[in-house]
Structure formats: structure tokens, C-alpha cells
Design brief:
Radius of gyration: 19 Å
Strand order of the largest sheet: 6-5-9-2-3-8-7
Distance between the termini: 37 Å
Number of helices: 2
Structural class: alpha+beta
Bound molecules: zinc ion
Helix content: 10-25%
Largest sheet: 7 strands, antiparallel
Length: about 210
């Protein structure tokens, strides 16, 4: 089982121990590490990019209990280095954290977030109607988010019975395996591009100012 260092730390550089390197059907190689800094694709978040032993990591995925890093050439087992592209990671963390904030803003209008997609240029949160849900304006959602940004709420990570929960300030956490900013001041300007109803669900599309 790969230890997922990104669950508890924001480091983007460190040592690595390669435990397996096997050929893939497409001619590339799947590398597993004892513990990884790389976030695999999943949970609505794209995979990290970066290098292992100086070799570019082309994609990262979960297979069972392992995190698998796909590279173009075989790597020797044993000690090496791992390096996650910090700029790409920070963008993903900002987008993901903005998604949490939109989820929580939607809840104040009686909606329950059920699906999240935090990819660049296609961010969207899908909500099911809860008790007395009224369709909010984008500006109403943004007012709540900006207040919380002004308060510069800090990230909070809890493990309850092995389940990782991530929240900000005193707001309730969401079960989550992704990466997030340490404080909401890192989020920058959230832009809500659309609030629409689709098959009884509210879909909020969003992006970030560069
Ligand atoms: Zn999250």
C-alpha cells in the first residue's frame, strides 16, 4: 500500500523509494513508491505532474491500494528523488478549495453538493435539492465565499475512523482525498460563470482569475 504523503503535507520535493517498476501494455512503465508526494487523478482532481529520478511522470492513478506513476522508461528499484510541479499543484489545490467553498455557499441556500469536478477551465459543483432550496444568484454565492476569504480561514484535516475530512475554519469538513490551499487567502479571485438547473439539480460552474 502506497503511503500518500500529500494527505498530510504540502511538500513537493523529497526522497523516494521505488518498490516496483513494471512494463505497461502500451510500452510505458508503471512505477510504485513506498510513499508518494503525487496526487493521482480522482475525486474530481487531475493528477499531479513532475519527475521521479529526473524522469517526467506522465500520469498518476490509483490501482487498488497503490498509487501508480506512469513514465516512459524503466527506473531502477531503490532510492531516488521525487519532485511535483509546484505551480500545477497549487493551481489544482486552489481550484479544489474553491469547489469546497462553492459547496458550502450552496448549502446555505438549502442545496447539498453531490458531485465535484475541479479541473482547470471546467470547474463545476453539482447539488441536489435539500430542504427549501432556492436557486441563488452567482453574486450571492460569491458574497459568502469572499467573506470567508476575508476571514482567511485555515485548512483543517481530520481523520475520523480512517476517513479523511477536509474543512476550512469551523465549517464542517467534506470527506475528501484531494489537495487544498493551507489558507483561503491563497485562493485568489473565484469567478462563477454559470448557475443553472439541470434535471432537478443545481450546477454551479466556476473558474479562477489567473
Ligand atoms: Zn477537497
Amino acid at each position: 500500500m502506497t503511503e500518500r504523503l500529500y494527505y498530510t503535507c504540502d511538500d513537493t520535493r523529497g526522497h523516494a523509494t521505488i518498490t516496483h517498476c513494471t512494463a505497461e501494455p502500451d510500452g510505458r512503465y508503471a512505477v510504485t513508491l513506498e510513499s508518494t508526494l503525487f496526487h493521482p487523478q480522482g475525486g474530481g482532481q487531475p493528477s499531479d505532474s513532475g519527475t521521479i529520478g529526473g524522469i517526467p511522470v506522465e500520469s498518476v492513478m490509483t490501482r487498488g491500494e497503490e498509487v501508480v506513476h506512469i513514465v516512459a522508461q524503466p527506473l531502477p528499484l531503490g532510492e531516488t528523488t521525487q519532485c511535483v510541479d509546484a505551480a500545477v499543484r497549487h493551481l489544482h489545490s486552489r481550484l479544489h478549495s474553491a469547489g469546497h467553498m462553492i459547496g458550502q455557499a450552496g448549502e446555505t441556500f438549502g442545496w447539498r453538493p453531490v458531485k465535484a469536478h475541479h479541473w482547470p477551465n471546467e470547474g463545476r459543483i453539482t447539488f441536489a435539492a435539500g430542504e427549501g432550496g432556492t436557486l441563488p444568484e452567482a453574486a450571492q454565492l460569491l458574497a459568502i465565499i469572499r467573506q470567508r476569504q476575508n476571514d482567511n480561514l485555515a485548512r483543517r484535516i481530520d481523520f475520523n475512523g480512517g476517513l479523511r475530512q477536509v474543512g476550512f475554519g469551523e465549517l464542517p469538513g467534506y470527506p475528501c482525498g484531494g489537495t487544498h490551499v493551507a489558507r483561503l487567502s491563497e485562493l485568489g479571485e473565484v469567478v462563477i460563470t454559470q448557475v443553472k438547473m439541470k434535471k432537478g439539480q443545481m450546477v454551479v460552474s466556476y473558474t479562477l482569475e489567473a
